[in-house]
Amino acid sequence: MFAFQKWSSLAEMRRYMQRFIHLVDGLPKLGGVMRTKYNQYDSVVRPMKKYLEEKGVKFEMGKEVVDIDFNLSADKISATVIHLKNKTEIVLRENDFVFFTNGSITESTDNGSWDKPAKLKGVEESGAWTLWKKIAKKDPSFGNPNPFCDNIDLQKWYSFTATMKDSTFLDYMENFSGNVDGTGGLVTMIDSNWLMSIVIARQPHFPNQPNDVKIFWGYGLYPDRKGNYINKTMAECSGAEILEELYYHLKIQELMAPITKAGKVNCIPVAMPFIDSLFMPRNKGDRPDVIPSGSTNFAFLGQFAEAPKDCVFTVEYSVRTAQMAVYGLFDTDKKVHPMYESTHNPKYLLAALKAISR
Ligand SMILES: Cc1cc2nc3c(=O)[nH]c(=O)nc-3n(C[C@H](O)[C@H](O)[C@H](O)COP(=O)(O)OP(=O)(O)OC[C@H]3O[C@@H](n4cnc5c(N)ncnc54)[C@H](O)[C@@H]3O)c2cc1C
Question: Residue 174 CB: number of other CB atoms within 10 A?
């Protein structure tokens, strides 16, 4: 919810309110939010990859799919060939299945550095969006990617990660907010022209992070506005300039100056052109069904496939679409995980009512 913009989809906001009404009471302190021990890559992706490899799954990295051929008849859809960037192709056999993550919010991401801003890339550099655009032209049931990727100025925002060989900043924030690292929510600088927020995860955030190294992450929802202290837009700023703006809002420029001077700080700005794509207003059918009607061996996965009632910008949504795809195409006797339905529970409605009228 901390990435909704004024122009974001009202339908999506409504889904959020209904889906998470039981958490509204804890919203001011982000109570009820579950966190992984380390960053999500180390805590979720790595163990899952290891588990799958042990089961015989083969991952081929660095391969880009540029097109998929289909056999389209009046009542059947079958994927037949996967085309790769290096002009090789995978011809699909009878028991082969294709699961396609159509669209991705981290596509075309660019990292800047301490003294260099990040570059804003576009749709043409993005494998996921260009592939979905190509496929969407082949059948109306493959959805319409354009509302999600054709207006980068409404979809982008910028983030940054700071790494410090010093604990002054984190100690200051702990004192200031009363939260030990990893227990607080987002801290938003509400007067910031960029609408900056920071999140201090539990330390260490990476399993191999030395004790004296501290890390935090932040973002700004309005990267095209000039800062309150730095006379540049966030998009034009290097990592050093973004941190200076943050210190200004927290009134710690003097406190942090010697640490910066000693070279103990790094900050990497990141441009993410599609990060808010999933909240863009959409029409029914823009997001394809997970299993298009008549599909024999093909399904869509992820944030831009339709999982009725569920909310995007979550790992859970992608997992649910994967369950819908696999349990729908195979005989597994398994059921898609039900969503927790709290909308009609008077206890939560009352607590939410009290919370929003506080
Ligand atoms: C900053 C940030 C904060 C977030 N915070 C949270 C949070 O607190 N809680 C939460 O639940 N979720 C959060 N999310 C959302 C969550 O991380 C995503 O929804 C989820 O990771 C999406 O997973 P996915 O597998 O569907 O898609 P992705 O992770 O986008 O994976 C798509 C994959 O497909 C690959 N690909 C794309 N096109 C091609 C091609 N043509 N050929 C080959 N490969 C291709 C990409 O390289 C990528 O690896 C956050 C996301 C971001 C960016």
Answer: 16
Instruction: Tell whether 286 and 143 lie within a shared domain.
Output: yes
User: Probe ligand 1: pick from 161, 315, 320, max atoms within 8 Å of CB?
Assistant: 315
Looking up tokens 């059921």 gives: 335
- Do 238 and 258 belong to one domain? yes
Which of 254, 272, 290 terminates a domain? The answer is 272
Q: Is residue 113 part of a domain?
A: no
Angle ∠(64,46,273) on CA atoms, nearest 5: 50
Give, for all 358 residues of the chain, the pLDDT tens digit. 789 999 999 999 999 999 999 988 888 777 777 789 999 999 999 999 999 999 999 999 999 999 999 999 989 999 999 999 989 999 999 999 999 999 999 999 999 999 999 999 999 999 999 999 999 999 999 999 999 999 999 999 999 999 999 999 999 999 988 888 888 788 999 999 999 999 999 999 999 999 999 999 999 999 999 999 999 999 999 999 999 999 999 999 999 999 999 999 999 999 999 999 999 999 999 999 999 999 999 999 999 999 999 999 999 999 999 999 999 999 999 999 999 889 999 999 999 999 989 8
Backbone φ and ψ of 333, nearest 5°: 65, 10
72-87 b/e (C-beta count within 10 Å ≥ 16 → b): eeeeebbbeebbeeee
Going from the Cα of 312 to the center of ligand 1, the distance in angstroms, rounded, reads: 11
Report yes or no on 242 lying in a domain.
yes
Closest C-alpha residue for ligand 1 atom 38: 128
| Lookup: tokens for 209 | 């992070």
Q: Which residue, judged by its Cα, is nearest atom 28 of ligand 1?
A: 104
Same-domain status, 86 and 212: no
Q: Is the residue at 116 inside a domain?
A: no
Task: State which of 220, 239, 272 marks the end of a domain.
Answer: 272
Which residues span the domain enclosing 7?
A: 1-43+62-108+127-151+280-358
Q: Provide the 3-class DSSP secondary structure of residue 47.
A: helix
Residues 180 and 241 in one domain: yes
